[in-house]
Specification:
917 residues; Peripla_BP_I; coiled coil; Rossmann fold; 26 strands; alpha/beta; 9-stranded mixed sheet; disordered N terminus; 7-stranded mixed sheet; ABC transporter substrate-binding protein
Length: 917
């Protein structure tokens, strides 16, 4: 049972258990995984005391029977007192934080705050300007002696500055003691204060205060106490907002430092919890507490403070000076905070989260049960006390000295193993190795990653075969030497990452490896084509590390002239765009695999797209939704369009569909998953109804279908979240036992799940866009037949639950086409050199691709004819696009539009011969 009376516990409001659970996880989160946490503002639009009761309950959770569980301060609700000093709030907070430090964690020292507290409280300086900084220093040292026993003792030993008679020994003592124990410590204090506030130099290692002064005055301060004269009395005009601003920055800087570990400070290492600031009543927009909260939020963002969690209740009115995150309620706030604890806060996200709360029933069953199981905070405990840890550190030091002595004496020590990130790889955002890899050594052993390793090992073997074949050729051999292509995609991920099967990476790698084997088989036999090596570049989960990896690839390409191009870019994301601009600046030709966003083509002149754009895909989907009998054998009369406004692909596809289908019949539902890598909405993203969670999304769709059974769902989101949506439909499908869904091309990734979508939700009728399913084209396209023969020759015995149907996935064939198209360009570039192999580089390849491949290329996913010369663009107009109907008996093509091969153009679809967009 927790301490305190019943009224001091967290009330069992609906969803409060998710909020409190996330709060607990943030408070005890390990240092190495922390990021900035937004200040939680509990707003009460209808009045009441719900927020104050939650804050009181949180404070109770932080108290233990025998000591405090986490350092915290709680500002109680109190009437405004005009006589209250501006600094009383800070003194109240710092006192409570110090008093609530858990046992064995030492005293909380706030040197920066205490120093600036003394500065702003100093009397107005007078006299000569040259003497004012010294007088301010002396005043601050006098204040320092009040809290430092050592400084106070040294001052007492120093006595008075002048002797007052006595023996010769007393005169000598008074002559020496004053300078030694008073003036010298005071001078050292002043120098240390300047070092603490300004850093070690003007050019490097600047501290927050130096940067703050530069922002206020335009130049960096040279001396601390001279620059601090402007703060005496709270600033030139006694501005309370400026006073709060500087003191909040100082307080947070000290708390951030107090939360860091130190090697020889076991008390610091035992500080395993964040500092918690609670406020029972924030008040109106211009109140004292609201002003403090505004400065707290700004300072947390400026300092990237990760050691503080703040919750304020009673937000009566919100100021519009700082942008906020607005959530629907306690449950949504808990989900958002849990996501922050797990994945961190993305840069640029607002520093405050507004959570509406209201007085309501306190008997929610889920909340009551959870609070009963977890009535209080449970911080991690250490087995040993500080004294034992000091002894342990000393033992480690002795051992280190012994090892060092052994090394100097030549004693061999065996290595603990190879660095997990070798060569041109490095640790990425999720703790996985990203960068350019020669093989599969850097990737994990999970089920999906094991399949990726198998393909990478196949590529590595094919690279070795090329090198072995070329090693026996003489220097005067006229046949071309190998060139290198880099595959750029997400090859692995950390905890909770989108695995490579669902993300489409495995499908692309299979197509790439098959195309490499096919190209090299022709090149090594004939000697008239260029053999290809393939390097794999891991861009991180959902391209989170794409820009950094792109820069590493450019560095490698500058040293290795055999690298002539990049294929991949299978996901249209903002980080993907940044990477493409880096490649474009370096002059590296790029061929896309399955990326579709129109924005991809705007990132530079070196990118060529194999898949149709989202504009064309949206038009095809709109035509299908307009004419196809997709809802119980009848056409739809209304559409619910699901889009993620933070995802470039989803926003682009949804906008294209709505523009083609019309606004009147299209209801836009905006849902951003909690694990989105870039959660902030894109500029120009489509407008619509925001949905906070996937459960609410399923309920909204069910409500729409219940109102109008001829409502179709168009899913423009990622396939990895489609399965979660279906799970929620299956849980509560009383009002919508049947749902017809038309999905974008990314939905094909959901077909690789162990349970197919129609097995998750039995009432599902599923249609999805496909960018060229090779089995449907085998009779009309020789390239599609060649691709299928290569696939069956390698993976015919693959009967895995997640990979057995990958033969049908257009991602595999698109990657084949991207590699084959790039290989054709390399061959033509080599022939253009007249057989002078040394002239074949990425610049010549770019010239060939920009002019176009002569008569084009009939690929496994339809005809490709991309070139930028004469305004032809870098994508294929009327690229083949299909709509498939999925089900237990297999896929069936119900729409086929575009160019299958040269002279074979599909201009209509369906029994009604509807014109293709």
């Amino acid at each position: 049972m927790s301490t305190g009376d019943q009224n001091s516990r967290v009330p069992a409001y609906p969803g409060v258990e998710r909020f409190v659970d996330a709060f607990d996880k943030l408070v005890v989160q390990p240092r190495r995984t922390r990021s900035r946490v937004p200040v939680v503002l509990l707003s009460e639009p209808d009045g009441g005391m719900a927020g104050r009761r939650i804050v009181a309950g949180l404070r109770t959770r932080l108290r233990g029977r025998e000591g405090r569980l986490a350092p915290h301060a709680c500002v109680p609700a109190a009437p405004v007192d005009p006589a209250e000093r501006p600094l009383d709030l800070f003194e109240q907070i710092t006192f409570q934080l110090d008093e609530s430090m858990p046992r064995g964690t030492g005293r909380l020292r706030l040197p920066s705050y205490r120093l600036l507290r003394a500065v702003v409280g100093a009397p107005a300086a007078g006299g000569l300007m040259e003497r004012r900084p010294k007088e301010l220093r002396d005043h601050c040292y006098a204040e320092h002696r009040e809290v430092s026993a050592l400084a106070r003792g040294l001052w007492w030993l120093g006595g008075r500055d002048q002797a007052n008679g006595g023996t010769l020994l007393e005169l000598l003592w008074n002559f020496i003691a004053g300078p030694l124990f008073q003036r010298l410590p005071r001078a050292l204090y002043g120098r240390r204060a300047g070092r603490r506030m300004l850093g070690r130099g003007r050019s490097g290692g600047r501290r927050w205060y130096a940067e703050w002064v530069r922002q206020q005055q335009g130049t960096l301060p040279a001396e601390f106490f001279r620059s601090a004269l402007d703060l005496v009395g709270g600033g030139p005009d006694g501005d309370p907002e400026q006073l709060d601003r500087i003191l909040v920055h100082a307080l947070l800087a000290d708390l951030e430092a107090a939360g860091r570990k130190r090697l020889f400070d076991p008390w610091r290492r035992r500080r395993v919890s964040r500092f918690v600031l609670l406020m029972e009543e924030a008040g109106p927009a211009e109140s004292r507490n609201q002003r403090f909260l505004r400065e707290l939020r700004s300072a947390m963002e400026d300092l990237r403070c990760t050691s503080v969690v703040a919750v304020a209740a009673g937000v009566r009115s919100l100021a519009s000076r700082i942008p906020d995150i607005e959530v629907a309620g306690l449950s949504a706030a808990g989900a958002d905070l849990a996501n922050i604890a797990q994945r961190g806060t993305p840069p640029g996200r607002p520093s405050g989260m507004v959570v509406p709360v209201a007085e309501g029933p306190e008997d929610d069953q889920a909340a009551t049960y959870w609070l009963g199981r977890w009535p209080t905070l449970a911080p991690p405990t250490r087995r040993w006390g500080p004294g034992a840890e000091v002894a342990g550190v000393l033992g480690v030091g002795v051992l280190a000295l012994a090892v060092t002595a052994g090394l100097l004496a030549g004693v061999p020590f065996s290595s603990t193993g190879p660095d997990p990130c070798l060569g041109s790889t490095f640790l990425g955002t999720d703790g996985q190795c990203v960068g350019v890899a020669e093989g599969a050594a850097s990737f994990g052993t999970g089920d999906s990653e094991r399949a990726v390793r198998d393909v990478l090992q196949r590529i590595e073997q094919q690279n070795e075969q090329v090198e072995a074949e070329l090693a026996g050729r003489g220097a005067d051999d006229p046949r071309p030497r190998a060139r290198t292509v880099v595959y750029f995609g997400p090859l692995s991920g950390g905890k909770d990452a989108e695995d490579p099967v669902r993300g489409g990476t495995l499908a692309e790698l299979r197509g790439l490896a098959l195309a490499q084997a096919y190209v090299n088989g022709q090149a090594l036999r004939s000697g008239e084509r260029v053999p290809l090596r393939v390097l794999a570049a891991n861009a991180g989960d959902r391209f989170k590390d794409a820009p950094a990896v792109a820069r590493r690839i450019v560095d490698v390409a500058d040293k290795d002239r055999s690298i002539v191009g990049v294929v991949g870019f299978g996901q249209s994301r903002r980080r993907t765009y940044e990477a493409m601009r880096i490649f474009d600046d370096a002059g590296l030709p790029m061929v896309g695999t399955s990326g579709t966003a129109d924005e991809l083509l705007r990132q530079g002149e070196h990118y060529y797209q194999t898949a149709p754009t989202d504009t064309r895909a949206g038009q095809v989907m709109a035509s299908f939704a307009e004419h196809a009998p997709m809802v119980d054998g009848r056409t739809a009369v209304r559409v619910r369009l699901v889009s993620d406004p933070s995802d470039a692909y989803s926003a682009s596809l949804a906008t294209a569909f709505r523009d083609a289908y019309g606004n009147a019949r299209t209801g836009m539902l905006l849902y951003t998953p909690t694990d989105a890598p870039e959660p902030s909405p894109l500029p120009g993203a489509p407008a619509g109804t925001s949905i906070p969670s996937v459960e609410d999304l399923a309920r909204e769709v069910c409500r729409a279908v219940a109102e109008e059974p001829r409502t179709a769902v168009v899913w423009a989101g990622r396939g990895s979240h489609f399965q979660l949506f279906l799970n929620e439909l299956a849980r509560d499908a009383r009002d919508c036992r049947k749902v017809s869904v038309l999905g974008g091309d990314d939905v094909t990734n959901a077909l690789t799940e162990e349970r197919r979508p129609w097995q998750v939700f039995g009432g599902l009728t599923l249609y999805y866009l496909s960018h060229g399913r090779a089995p449907a084209l085998a009779g009309a396209s020789r390239e599609a037949a060649a691709f299928l023969a290569a696939y069956d020759g390698t993976y015919a015995k693959d009967h895995g639950t997640r990979t057995g149907e990958m033969r049908q996935d257009a991602h595999v064939a698109l990657a084949w086409d991207a590699m084959r198209y790039l290989a054709e360009g390399i061959d033509q570039a080599w022939r253009g050199t007249g057989g002078h192999d040394e002239r074949l580089d990425r610049g010549r390849l770019q010239a060939v691709l920009y002019q176009g491949l002569g008569l084009g290329f009939d690929g496994a996913t339809g005809r490709m004819d991309t070139h930028g010369a004469a305004g032809g663009g870098r994508l294929t107009e009327q690229k083949l696009t299909a709509v498939e109907q999925g089900g237990p008996t297999g896929a069936r093509t119900v729409l086929l539009c575009g160019t299958v091969a040269r002279g074979d153009v599909r201009g209509t679809w369906g029994e009604g011969k509807h014109p293709c967009p």
